[in-house]
Amino acid sequence: MILTLSNVWSQGYQAQTDYVNKWKDEAVRQMEIYKIPASITLAQGVLESGNGVSELAKKSNNHFGIKCHQDWTGGRAYHDDDEKGECFRVYDDPRDSYEDHSKFLLRSRYSSLFELDLEDYKGWAKGLSKCGYATNPKYPELLITIIERHELYKLDAGDWVDEKEAVADAHRGGKLHTSRTLHSVSTTENGIQFVYADQGDSIEKLAEQFDMMKWQFRKYNEVDKNHVFRKGEIVYLQPKKNSGFKDWHTVRGGETIWSISQKYGIKMKALAKKNNIPVDSHLRIGMKLSLKWRLNENGELPGYAKLLGGK
User: Fold this and answer.
1) How far, in Å, CA of 144 to CA of 159, rounded?
2) How far lies 126's CA from each of 39, 115, 121, 292, in Å?
3) Which of 102, 136, 126 is nearest to 4 (CA)?
4) What integer best gives the mean pLDDT of the chain?
5) The pTM is what?
6) Please, what are the domains in the chain?
7) Which residues of the chain have pLDDT under 50?
8) Could you tell me what percentage of the chain is helix, strand and coil, using 3-state DSSP and rounding each to the nearest 5?
């Protein structure tokens, strides 16, 4: 993607703000796991994805312009960039793009970045360019412009205040909360409200915070009463659906029926039934699971599903 400072400023302020509000929680989650400034992650997402509406972002869920490279075994898409017809990574979900971006920066090539302070966003921006993340010599300036324009450095310091929550707290006479201490409620593409768990979140703790019954968390997330959620796990506040919001999922190492059902907001029994497998099945890496349509006995989409748009 050819990026200039004028392009950054010409992108609508509201479009950038909408992108930041949509993905800030994911950026903070990545920061807490991988120690990469949330401001840097978000600024790169804004820049590389054109506020989430670039062709690569919309069709390939690739928000960071990461190319295939030799070790990539996932989906591929081809676009003109520095050279004609270059290979870019394709993800099942934009959140996978965020996760892969973090892991991509763990390469030895970028090791010097992690010697910087987490709040040194200018150092990280310049370091990314120096390490060769992008060829545009203005890349650091572009990132810094976005960060300062939206005060994203407050996310790194834990000083970001959610405006909607601030207004609500003001009406209640309460204290302001920052995004790193508050469970921010999000909604999946198939309309289910959820939060990302903090370290050590138990059902009892979450039930008290959200004024819900403990059985609701057990039922909605299909876990037992002693389950403790890991940091960054999805916790549903409403029942999961009988279909996911994507057509297919390709199994990765360590994934289970439960972890995939949580990722896409689909009930475990529904997911297993669609793929003609037991709920406790051991999944093979690379196995494709249908999230919307029930496969026939040959493991293929039935004719009616294809007529209705299944691929």
Assistant:
1) 18
2) 14, 13, 9, 44
3) 136
4) 83
5) 0.56
6) 5-157 (1.10.530.10), 183-236 (3.10.350), 248-307 (3.10.350.10)
7) 1-10, 165-181, 308
8) 45, 10, 45
